[in-house]
Every structure is written in structure tokens, then in C-alpha cells.
Design goal:
heterodimer, A: about 260 residues, alpha/beta, Rossmann fold, three-stranded antiparallel beta sheet, about 20% strand, globular, B: about 260 residues, mainly alpha, MetI-like fold, 2 domains, about 80% helix, about 0% strand
Chain lengths: ~260, ~260
């Protein structure tokens, strides 16, 4: 620990054009430590998904710098969305193997995997994650929880430096959600993952996070909260979650 | 639902279809009988003349020969339409700017009856297969291109987000997301194009060719053989119906969804 897997410095971003434009992120500084599970917590519209897309390289900020000190090569973060977004015409194994045929993986590993090889790798990973029995199914034959596990497998098969998760369990029912939360913690321990997890659910944030970043929209008022004595101070969290005046954009870090 | 139930409803469907065909033939006969009392041409147009004429066409092989010639022209024309229409549709569907900019030209061209091109086609391609194939292609390209474009626009933007986040090059995105995603729409639009192409083919074959079903229609008229004319019309309709049915069968789901 201690080193940063990813560092955002002075990130600003305005979305929309003309009179409809609004600043989503302003001068955000944030580090993701190697091996941690960092939770980004905030109400809807606070810019947490946008922040994640910036980390994933899907949105380019207007200003600021993203650095990955330990990753000089094309080893980029992987992202899991709220919807599984599996390709309906492909089997689970083929969906999971998808990233292995893409340019980024070829460039990083320097080798081109053939289709049977990719499929074998996908099956091996599915087995390791305890969902090997789903390999030959199609997405419409999966439950919501199963589909999201497959989506996570699809992301981690390319061994991303950081796993970014955008409210991945937000669309699931309560029982499935807690099942997947437990599964994610096991997965994280087994594969030594660095995870950035976005949620608006305080309970989920407290359960999963080593450290919380509280985004107090509409402009990013970023505050991070450390876990102390194995838990978070609940009143402290609630205080941070209380919206601050919208026209006082500022950046504050609590260590 | 038991198998017997499905069997019964299928049997009933076939019985109803046979009855409809018989009824249509009856009306055909009745119409030509009544209309033919004062008009000998209409009288020859009935099943009584058409059926022997069909047997003649079948026996001397000209029905098969003309049908094969027509189907070959249809096939080549469709191949050209798909070869040009699918890439055009992909571009129109993926680039909203291109679609908006090209809309006046595309919509104008689409509204021109392919037969309006016939004189131009003959003067450019001469006589023979080429102008006929060209007219089929120009009729079929629009359903293919516009159907493909609509299919591309209907793709979930989330799949593109996933491919990008996994590091897909643009060509890989096309191969793994766009093409398999629009495959059903492409096949549906090809089926549509098949019908349009077949309909355009017959009049196109009335220009400067001496073979094919369209030519057979003209030939029968010139020889005042109205029984043969009626037989040829029935052949044209039957073949169109058959190729459409075959293509529809090819379109039906390719994987077994019973494993649940």
C-alpha cells in the first residue's frame, strides 16, 4: 500500500454546450492506492459516474492530469457498468473472452490469442469465479445477478490495473445484492484487485470500502473518509453527505 | 400444450390453405368464363387453357430455362445490392452527420422507380443480362441500405461503451459488435429486397433480352397465346412465393432456446 495506482490532479470537466452546459467536476485531486477498495459515494447527479468515466479514459477532462505511476504501458482500468451489457448473440464464454481479442490486450501481452484459446481462458476464469456452469448459456438465460457476475468476469479477464465499478449492484434486488457484495470481497481477496466502487448506497459504501470519497454534488466537493477501527463514523459520513451550497465549489480532503 | 394440439392446428391451417387455393382457382375459372362470353381473349385466359399451356412449357423445358435465367439475374442483382447496400447502410447508420448530409440525395434516388432507369441502363450497358441485373440491383439496394442503417441505429450504445472500455480498435468494434448486432436486420432487409427485386425483374426482362420470365410474358402475348401468358404469370408468382418462403425459413432462429 501507500503507492498510488492512479492519481487525478486538477481534473475539471464541463458537460453540455451553450446555455445547457454545467460544470460536473472542478479541480478534483484524488489518488487511488494500490490494493485498496475505494468507494465513491454521493447522491444522484453528483458526478460520480462521470468521475469514473474519466478514470476509465472514456471521457477526456477539459483540464487536469490522470497518471498511473505503476503502469507505463497500455494497461488501462477496466470498467463494469450498472447494466451487464452482455452481447445477446454470444454465449457467456464468448462474452467473457471478448476483451482478449481486442487490440489493447494484444498490444499489452504482445501475442494474438486464437478463438479456442480465448474461450479456454474464459472458461478457466468462470470456473475460478464459481460460475463455470454458466459458460454455455446465452445472456437471456441468466438472472440479473448471474449476468452481472459474467460482466465482472469479462472485465477482469484482461487483468486491468484497476477495476472501476459504476453502481454495479444498483439494479439488483436486496438478496442478490448482498450475495454479490460478499462475492466481490472474496474475488478481490483472491485476485488482489484495486477497486474503485461507485454507489449512492451508504450501507453498501460502509460494507465494502476501505476508504470513502464523498462527492457532494452538483459541483464536486470531494471529501475522503478513512475507515477507523474497522468501521466508519456514521455521523461523520452523514455530515459529509449533507449537500453544501451549490455555488461554493471547493475541494476539501479529510484524512 | 400437447403435440396433438399443435398437429391439429397445423392440419387445419393446411386444410384452410388448400381450400383458399381451390376457391381462388374457382373464381379464376368463373371470371374467365363470364368475361369470356363476349371476349375471346379473356376466355383463353382461364385455367382450361392455362393448365395445358403450363404442361407444354414444362415438357419443352422452357419454363425451367426461363426461370433459371430470371433467378440468375435476380441473384446477381441482389449480390450487387447487398455488396454495396450493406457498407452504405453501415456508414449511414454509424455516422449521423453523413446520413443527415446525404438525406436529400438518398431519399430522392430511393423514390425513383427502377424502371425509369431502363432507357439509361440499356444505353449504358447495351442489351442482355447487364441492364436487367442493374435494374434489379438499383431496386434492391435501398431496402438493404436503409434496413442496415436502421439496424445499426437500434444497437445498444452500451455495447459500444463496453467494447471501447475493453480497448477495441474501430475495426474490432465493427466485427464483434456492429456486424453481429445488425445481422438480423440485414437478413430481414435482404428478404424485402428479394421481393422488390423479383417484382422489378419481370418488366426489366421486357427490354432487350430474349430469355427469362418477363420475356416469356411478351413472347406469349406476341404469339397471341393467352393460355401460355396465364401459365407464365402463375409461374412468376409461384417462384416469387417459393424464394420468399425459403428465405424466411433461413431467417428463423438459429439456436435452440429450449436449454433453459
Amino acid at each position: 500500500m501507500g503507492t498510488d495506482a492512479l492519481r487525478l490532479s486538477g481534473i475539471s470537466l464541463t458537460l453540455g454546450q451553450g446555455s445547457e452546459s454545467h460544470q460536473v467536476l472542478e479541480n478534483v485531486d484524488l489518488g487511488v492506492r494500490t490494493g485498496e477498495l475505494l468507494v465513491i459515494l454521493g447522491p444522484s447527479g453528483s458526478g460520480k459516474s462521470t468521475l469514473l468515466s474519466v478514470m476509465a479514459g472514456l471521457i477526456h477532462p477539459d483540464a487536469g492530469e490522470i497518471s498511473r505511476p505503476e503502469d507505463p504501458d497500455a494497461h488501462l482500468p477496466g470498467i463494469v457498468f450498472q447494466e451487464p451489457l452482455l452481447l445477446p448473440w454470444a454465449t457467456v464464454a464468448d462474452n467473457v473472452a471478448l476483451g482478449l481479442r481486442y487490440r489493447r490486450h494484444r498490444l499489452r501481452t504482445g501475442s494474438r490469442m486464437r478463438a479456442p484459446e480465448r474461450r479456454r481462458a474464459a472458461r478457466a476464469l468462470l470456473g475460478e469465479l464459481g460460475i463455470g456452469h454458466l459458460a454455455d448459456r446465452y445472456p437471456d438465460q441468466l438472472s440479473g445477478g448471474q449476468a452481472q457476475r459474467v460482466a465482472i468476469a469479462r472485465t477482469i479477464i484482461t487483468e486491468p490495473s484497476i477495476l472501476l465499478m459504476d453502481e454495479p449492484f444498483g439494479a439488483l434486488d436486496l438478496a442478490t445484492r448482498s450475495d454479490l457484495q460478499r462475492w466481490l470481497l472474496e474475488l478481490r481477496a483472491a485476485r488482489d484487485l484495486t477497486i474503485v466502487f461507485v454507489t449512492h448506497d451508504l450501507e453498501e459504501a460502509q460494507l465494502l470500502g476501505d476508504r470513502l470519497v464523498v462527492l457532494n454534488g452538483p459541483l464536486s466537493q470531494v471529501e475522503t473518509v478513512e475507515r477507523a477501527d474497522g468501521t466508519f463514523n456514521r455521523t461523520d459520513l452523514l455530515r459529509h453527505l449533507t449537500p453544501v451550497g451549490a455555488d461554493t465549489p471547493s475541494f476539501k480532503e479529510i484524512a | 400444450m400437447s403435440n396433438t394440439g399443435a398437429f391439429t392446428s397445423r392440419t387445419r391451417l393446411y386444410a384452410a390453405r388448400v381450400a383458399t387455393v381451390a376457391m381462388a382457382c374457382g373464381l379464376w375459372w368463373l371470371g374467365t368464363q363470364l368475361g369470356g362470353r363476349n371476349n375471346p381473349i379473356i376466355a383463353q385466359f382461364g385455367p382450361a387453357d392455362a393448365v395445358p399451356a403450363f404442361v407444354d412449357l414444362w415438357v419443352d423445358g422452357s419454363a425451367i430455362r426461363d426461370a433459371i435465367t430470371s433467378l440468375r439475374r435476380l441473384g446477381v442483382g441482389l449480390l450487387i445490392a447487398v455488396g454495396l447496400g450493406v457498407p452504405l447502410g453501415l456508414i449511414l447508420g454509424m455516422r449521423a452527420g453523413v446520413e443527415q448530409a446525404s438525406a436529400p440525395v438518398v431519399q430522392l434516388l430511393r423514390m425513383i422507380s427502377p424502371l425509369a432507369w431502363a432507357p439509361a441502363a440499356v444505353s449504358v450497358f447495351g442489351i442482355g443480362d447487364a441492364p436487367v441485373t442493374f435494374l434489379v440491383a438499383i431496386a434492391a439496394i435501398w431496402p438493404v441500405a436503409l434496413g442496415t442503417a436502421a439496424g445499426v441505429r437500434a444497437l445498444s450504445p452500451g455495447w459500444t461503451k463496453v467494447a471501447r472500455s475493453l480497448g477495441a480498435a474501430p475495426i474490432e468494434h465493427l466485427q464483434t459488435v456492429v456486424l453481429p448486432g445488425v445481422r438480423p436486420q440485414i437478413l430481414t432487409s435482404v428478404r424485402l429486397a428479394l421481393g422488390v427485386g423479383w417484382i422489378v425483374l419481370v418488366p426489366a426482362e421486357m427490354l432487350g433480352v430474349d430469355s427469362g420470365l418477363g420475356y416469356a410474358v411478351l413472347n406469349a402475348r406476341d404469339r397471341l397465346d393467352y393460355g401460355q401468358l396465364a401459365a407464365t404469370i402463375i409461374v412468376i408468382g409461384s417462384i416469387g412465393y417459393m424464394i420468399d418462403a425459403i428465405f424466411q425459413r433461413l431467417l428463423s432462429p438459429r439456436r435452440n432456446r429450449s436449454v433453459r
